[in-house]
Design a protein that fits this description.
The chain is mainly β and 391 residues long. It is built from 1 helix and 27 strands. The strands form 6 sheets. Strands 17, 18, 19, 20, 21, 22, 23, 24, 25, 26 and 27 form an 11-stranded mixed beta sheet that branches. Strands 1-2-3-4 form a 4-stranded antiparallel beta sheet, with no helix packed on it. It has a 4-stranded antiparallel beta sheet with strand order 10-11-12-13, with no helix packed on it. The termini are far apart.
């Protein structure tokens, strides 16, 4: 109980930055003392996106003598959490010892970019965490797998309370009922206990920072309810993108054109017989009667490049065959394509691969078919850069 050291610390800008105020909070971990703001209210997205939180500061001291290790205006929303040797200050994360931003390869370009997560939907409360998982309110119960790093996932129907309401321990996550006294009405007010699953079949909503071109690889899963990684760790983005309300979810526009009667669909993968295929969830959704879409691949100043393109087709319901032509960059690349109809509960799937498609800006894909007949159903497309285009 003897005093080891005592010193004054300038905590200007840790609290009372823009809306919500926030209380001064101290946390200790791994020989470091962290001073920060503890605003719990997640309603102030308008102010955050307007840059009003830019000055909100993190300060880290050496616990041995109180000397400042680093401080920075960290532009964070709510009370941070320390996980191992990192500080997660929503929506960012930083090295505890140095303050360097947590980085990851950008899912499109592959270049190093700042790590960021988003929790869409109405929310109060702060994040709690284990080494592999973040837990928080994101409209409903939200969680983020730090190992897979494939976006915010949800368990709908219940909501967390307005402060710390997810309690990880002994391999479980306990979420006691804490919503009944709030004006936010939810249909199911109950305690929830979650346990690990060997296979995670839920869908995420990914956030990403930095330039999106030149694209090294992009996988698009049409009609999918969210984003997901396959067994090899490749990211697949659901499209259309989720409703963002100008938050931090990763968005892009393919400018799709659909024929009359066309649209997006999604089926529970366990309700359809897709046979022995890898990543069957990739084929359980799609776009019906797509006539045209374009994928932004290269930006201003990017050199023209060649891309390999792989189409994934699946006829989930119709017993009629679909006949169509594929056009890429306004040129017919496959004519007389026929996707057989479903029969006896067996779904017909097919893939078509193109090599070295020259791209200067966008990849433009068109399907030509008789609108009176059975239209094509495209489940996914994967586009991978191979080399600079030769002129």
């Amino acid at each position: 109980g003897e005093k080891l050291w005592s010193k004054a610390v300038d905590v200007t800008d840790t609290t009372n930055i823009s809306a919500g105020g926030g209380s001064l909070t101290l946390m200790y971990a791994n020989g470091h003392v962290v001073l920060c703001g503890a605003n719990a209210n997640g309603h102030y997205w308008k102010q955050f996106l307007a840059g009003e939180f830019d000055r909100r500061k993190l300060i880290v001291l050496d616990a041995i003598d109180g000397s400042e290790q680093w401080s920075k205006n960290a532009n964070y929303m709510n009370r941070p959490a320390i996980i191992g040797n990192e500080i997660f200050a929503e929506p960012w994360a930083f090295e505890l010892a140095t303050g360097k931003p947590k980085m990851r390869p950008h899912p499109l370009t592959g270049k190093e970019s700042e790590w960021r997560f988003s929790r869409p939907g109405h929310h109060c409360g702060v994040i709690t965490a284990t080494p592999n998982m973040l837990f928080f309110r994101s409209g409903f119960i939200g969680y983020y797998d730090l190992y897979r790093d494939s976006g915010t996932r949800h368990f709908a129907g219940q909501r967390l309370g307005c402060w710390i309401n997810a309690i990880p321990g002994n391999g479980l996550v306990m979420i006691p009922e804490a919503s009944a006294g709030c004006v936010c009405q939810f249909s199911i007010a109950s305690t929830v206990v979650m346990e690990p699953k060997v296979e995670n079949k839920s869908w995420g909503i990914l956030s990403a920072v930095g330039p999106t071109t030149p694209v090294n690889r992009i996988g698009i899963n049409f009609g999918a309810p969210g984003d997901r990684k396959d067994l090899s760790g490749r990211e697949w983005f659901g499209y259309p993108r989720p409703l963002t309300r100008n938050r931090l979810e990763f968005v892009f526009d393919l400018k799709p054109k659909l024929a009359n009667g066309g649209g997006w669909y999604s089926r529970n993968v366990e309700s359809v017989n897709l046979g022995n295929v890898e990543s069957p969830w990739l084929l359980a959704s799609g776009g019906r009667a797509l006539q045209r879409f374009e994928i932004p691949l290269l930006g201003k100043g990017d050199a023209a490049s060649n891309y390999d393109v792989k189409f994934y087709f699946a006829n989930l319901e119709s017993s009629d065959s679909a006949a169509f032509e594929i056009r890429v960059q306004s040129k017919a690349v496959r004519s007389g394509v026929v996707l057989a109809g479903a029969s006896a509960g067996q779904i017909n799937v097919d893939t078509i691969e193109l090599s070295k498609v020259a791209v200067e800006k966008n990849l433009v894909v068109e399907f030509q078919f008789d609108e009176q007949g059975e239209p094509p159903v495209l489940s996914a497309i994967e586009v991978t850069r191979t080399e600079a285009a030769t002129r």
